[in-house]
Amino acid sequence: MTGRKTSRRDLLKGGALAVVSVGATGAATARQVSTTGAVVEEAVTPQTLQCAEALFDVRYTDAEREMVVAEIDGWIDRMSRQRAHAKPNTLSPATVFDPRLRSRRYRDQADQVAPSGADAGALPSSPADIAFAPVWKLGQWMRRGVLTSRRLTDIYLDRIAVHGDTLECFVTVTPDLARAQADAADRELAAGQDRGPLHGIPYGMKDIVDVAGVRATWGATPYQDRVAEADATVTTRLREAGAVLLGKTTNGALAYGDRWFGGITRNPWNTQEGSSGSSAGSASATAAGLVAFGIGTETLGSIVSPSNRCGTTGLRPTFGRVSRHGAMALCWSLDKIGPICRSVEDTGLVLAALNGFDAADAGSLDVGLEIDAARPVRGMRVGYSPAWFEAGSDADRAALQAARDAGVELVEVELPDLPYDGLFAVVEAESAAAFEHLTLSGEDDSLVWQAPAAWPNTWRRARFISAVDLINVDRFRREVMEMMDGVMEGLDAMIGPNFANALLVITNYTGHPQLAIKSGYNQLATRTIFGDPASDEGTTHRVPQTTSLWAPLFEEGTLIALGREIERRLNVADDHPPAFHQE
Question: Is 518 a catalytic residue?
Fold first, then answer.
């Protein structure tokens, strides 16, 4: 050994490369050289392998270990050179996930959205009441000439100025851009140019989605000064739809949780607790009436979970329906972009603007979107399990009763007991690959959340996921896809508590759409990001919750029609956080 002795962590921070040689004893030696010249040599011996076997739950004989060591030098060298090759976040894997089964034929859909036809009524006199109105009402008032996009934009900008710091829900506010876009929208409407339901509607964009010339920090300290060079596809589509960008809403660092480099995004119903994550800012701002709608993303609950915490309506579309080009990649085979709104009908209007094939996204699918918000739901076959609702809340049971009262046919279903938690290896490995440079450089230490469940520790642990196990998990994923296809056979939708029977996990991995609808309220103590009580002080707060609907692949139209009818019967969507509904 030459040079000073240094730790493996120091080596990683110094940009270490590993070169392997085989000594006279036959043991492979990992000779790691840092950019400062420090050297560490660690012999990979049969005893090394024996110690490592416990990590992978395998057992080899002495002779087998000797044979592995004899060939391991080339393997380490190949992987070290591969690791040193730069791979930007925009580079997706060659293997692309497709939720469609070859054995299943999916119906063709035209791109058409039929609104419910409900009357928005008179424009309220209160700016707060205007701010909390759903998109479909705001659009009607604009077209009647009683509300302008500029006035609505100023209402939201004023509310952001008053409440934004309390909720910690915006990374960047773009008032000049918003007013310019609002003025342009008003001029176009006055000239008879109508871009559609989102024309003139102000919104917030989750901060992992790029807007050219605006910071896109990904919520993380290493990127807090990052400025986007080009628009993401969804940014372009929303601009073409006439929507007005108010700013970039917060997300947990690198799309996990509600903690970002500047604070913790708050739940408007109880500002002592975070808004869950990772589309934390979009849900918080939408619930508090700071935006007309927000754009969220979901890899494994990041639309549904903050919608549940804040009482918004979140739609996670079918995988591949909405382009992710220009958005931070966390897990290429799971990431999705979708709307967070205050009504079910609004989610359909926003999704229609986002939908469409994009060659720039390797996972994008060319699928039409048909939505009829007023479609009758009587006779729809809706799957459920009584056990889900026995373990659920009164709000969940109220949603089930609303579906029953609407005349749907409730069909009992049962999901097999399978090791669904094994699927987590996919997001752990893909995200660790996407941000490998943070782990190897030691920059992961700068992330604000440092805990066993946080990304830094997850990614260090992911280095020990066996490639063989990961491939077998992927094979298991196909088994789960086929299982869910069978469960959905003959059903129009399913209903249940958001996290019932691992359905949120299952349907994220199978690519099925999920709609979280505000269904009622609970008295709960302040909670952690995972829903556990944050303290034992005994104080409770009236906070909302959602109940979920799932549909077969690409059948978001069914979710909108059924969800809107349940929402109408529950009559809680128009309740808003009292502290933020005052003038």
Answer: no
Q: Are 580 and 289 in contact (CB under 8 A)?
A: yes
Q: Give me the amino acid identity at 191.
A: A
In 241-372, alpha helices (H): 280-287, 304-310, 344-354
Q: What's the pLDDT at 41?
A: 56
- Please state, in angstroms and rounded to a whole number, the distance separating the CA atoms of residues 133 and 439: 44
According to the model, what pLDDT value does residue 529 have?
A: 87
Q: Sign of the CA dihedral 412, 417, 421, 427?
A: negative
Cα(45)–Cα(69) distance, integer angstroms? 6
pLDDT score of 39:
46
In this prediction, residue 31 carries a pLDDT of 44
The first and second tokens of residue 545, run together, are 């919750």
Q: Which of 13, 206, 248, 336 is catalytic?
A: 206
Instruction: Tell me the C-alpha distance between 502 and 223, whole Å.
Output: 33
**From 34, 284, 302, 343, active-site residue:** 302
| Separation of alpha carbons 492 and 175, rounded Å | 43
Element (H, E) at 136: helix 135-144
In the DSSP assignment, the letter for residue 124 is P
Residue 26 has a pLDDT of 42
Query: Catalytic: which of 276, 278, 333, 364?
Result: 278
Structure tokens that stand for 215 in this block: 């910071």
Which of 558, 554, 442 has the alpha carbon at shortest distance from 104? 554
64 has pLDDT over 70: yes
Residue 531: its pLDDT value, please? Answer: 85
The residue assigned the tokens 């917030």 is: 204
Q: What are phi and psi of 547, to 5 degrees?
A: -125, 150
Give the separation between CA 101 and CA 453, rounded to whole angstroms. 33
CA–CA gap between residue 515 and residue 565 (Å, rounded)? 13
pLDDT-based confidence at residue 538 (cuts at 50, 70, 90): confident
Helix, strand, coil shares of the chain, percent, nearest 5, are 40, 20, 40
The string of pLDDT tens digits covering residues 239-278 is: 999 999 999 999 999 999 999 999 999 999 999 999 999 9
pLDDT at residue 40, as a whole number: 53
pLDDT reported for residue 32: 46
Phi and psi at residue 117, in whole multiples of 5°? 85, 5
Compute the average pLDDT of residues 311-329: 98
Residues of the chain within CATH 3.90.1300.10 domain(s) are 125-419+466-580
**Distance (Å, rounded) from C-alpha 404 to C-alpha 399?**
9
CA distance 226 to 325: 17
> 202-206 and 293-298: which strand pairing?
parallel
Q: Does residue 302 have an active-site annotation?
A: yes
What distance in Å separates the CA atoms of residue 97 and residue 335, rounded to the nearest whole number? 11
8: left (phi over 0), alpha (psi -120 to 50) or beta: alpha
Q: Is the model's pLDDT at 121 over the cut of 60?
A: yes
Three-state DSSP state, 260: strand
Which fold does the domain 125-419+466-580 belong to in CATH?
Answer: Amidase signature (AS) enzymes (3.90.1300)
What average pLDDT does the chain have?
A: 92
Contact 351, 374 (CB under 8 A): no
